[in-house]
Amino acid sequence: MPGALFGLFEINSDTGEVVTTTTLDREVQEVLTLQVLVRDGGAPALSGTTTILCTVGDENDHAPEIIVPRHDIEVLENQEPGLDTNSVDTHFMECIQHLVSNGNTDEYFAINETSGELSITRALDREQVSNFTLVILCSDLGDPPRSSMVQLQVRVLDDNDHSPSFSRLHYQASVREDAQVGTVVLVLSAVDKDEGLNGKTEYSLADEASGAFTIDPVVGTLRTSHILDREARAEHTFKAVARDCGVQGSRSTTVIIKVHVTDVNDNDPVWEQNPFDIFLSPQSPTNQMTAILRASDPDLGPNGTVIISFAEPQSVFSINEYTGEIQLQQNSASEYFPIWLQLKVVDQGFPARTTTGLLVIHMEGEDVRISFSQHLYNGIVPENCEAGECQVFCTLSQF
Ligand SMILES: [Ca+2]
Ligand SMILES: [Ca+2]
Ligand SMILES: [Ca+2]
Ligand SMILES: [Ca+2]
């Protein structure tokens, strides 16, 4: 009979079979009420009515709908497990089961099967895994079961849990003592695995009281900051510090640096005594040591090894070039005393440096007289010097 549901059903007028003419939706109307009229063929026709209650059976035709507050989640690393990271809030969640179906690297996450509450199973380590793409599967228990999926991006926020790490346990380097100011001695490198400022390293020096070295705070280049002097200090030991820029408390690492200053031949040999006087008597024996000349050189190795000799070859005296021993070689009766002999001492550096000296040999009973202590005096007088302003001193000796 005509009604609200007219058109949804039709009836076979011979057999009385009622069939649907369209698809029914339980979620629109669960119970349908039909009025059916039956009439015979007599005259007058007799009729009757009846009511059919048609219940639309449930079919699991809706997948669960998932609503999440946000798809991007941020979690700080090193947080204790049990702290909720987020809840997957669901709708139409009758008998819904939740499951992390994908992206759960190393099983860092767990989801409450019924409530959908997502949590971490242990502390996250950003330096190990910094991002997760979790796929959450929500299923109902219908027949057949239906499910929906949602994708969550989890970004692990950095905690400053790493100190800068130098590439070596300690550093050693050598630098020439005549290196120009600013010479690169070493380039330090420290790595900090953290992110952003937590991983940004700055370098500085500690216990470097001499001020001979500086370090570039950004790139770690260690340079000389003034002229070095091996003879004053042959080795410098100090520390370098790499500190991160963590805002919530920085972390640092210290490393020992040893810098060896290598020698340069920058010192002339020095006589222990100059001029050097020897006093002979007519009985002085030949071929025996009469005196020892000494000279030293503060440089290292060959640069500081000295060889002593006469400036000009001469026959009356000999000199051992290594020990400085002077010997009378022949009878000196015919000589005029005192005798002045130019000496030289040469180091073994390259190039070698030379210092001259004077040996004065006296004979017992020689005339006492006043003489200049040196044969040759060197003086430097600046140009444009006013008269009487510049002086050169010559010393006299009395014998
Ligand atoms: Ca750090
Ligand atoms: Ca970290
Ligand atoms: Ca020297
Ligand atoms: Ca030197």
Automatic annotation (TrEMBL):
<dbReference type="InterPro" id="IPR020894">
    <property type="entry name" value="Cadherin_CS"/>
</dbReference>
<dbReference type="Pfam" id="PF00028">
    <property type="entry name" value="Cadherin"/>
</dbReference>
<keyword id="KW-1133">Transmembrane helix</keyword>
<feature type="domain" description="Cadherin">
    <location>
        <begin position="167"/>
        <end position="271"/>
    </location>
</feature>
<dbReference type="InterPro" id="IPR050971">
    <property type="entry name" value="Cadherin-domain_protein"/>
</dbReference>
<dbReference type="InterPro" id="IPR002126">
    <property type="entry name" value="Cadherin-like_dom"/>
</dbReference>
<dbReference type="GO" id="GO:0005886">
    <property type="term" value="C:plasma membrane"/>
</dbReference>
<feature type="domain" description="Cadherin">
    <location>
        <begin position="67"/>
        <end position="166"/>
    </location>
</feature>
<dbReference type="GO" id="GO:0005911">
    <property type="term" value="C:cell-cell junction"/>
</dbReference>
<feature type="domain" description="Cadherin">
    <location>
        <begin position="7"/>
        <end position="66"/>
    </location>
</feature>
<keyword id="KW-0106">Calcium</keyword>
<dbReference type="InterPro" id="IPR015919">
    <property type="entry name" value="Cadherin-like_sf"/>
</dbReference>
<feature type="domain" description="Cadherin">
    <location>
        <begin position="272"/>
        <end position="384"/>
    </location>
</feature>
<keyword id="KW-0677">Repeat</keyword>
<dbReference type="GO" id="GO:0005509">
    <property type="term" value="F:calcium ion binding"/>
</dbReference>
<keyword id="KW-0130">Cell adhesion</keyword>
<protein>
    <recommendedName>
        <fullName>Cadherin domain-containing protein</fullName>
    </recommendedName>
</protein>
<keyword id="KW-0812">Transmembrane</keyword>
<keyword id="KW-0325">Glycoprotein</keyword>
<keyword id="KW-0472">Membrane</keyword>
<dbReference type="GO" id="GO:0007156">
    <property type="term" value="P:homophilic cell adhesion via plasma membrane adhesion molecules"/>
</dbReference>
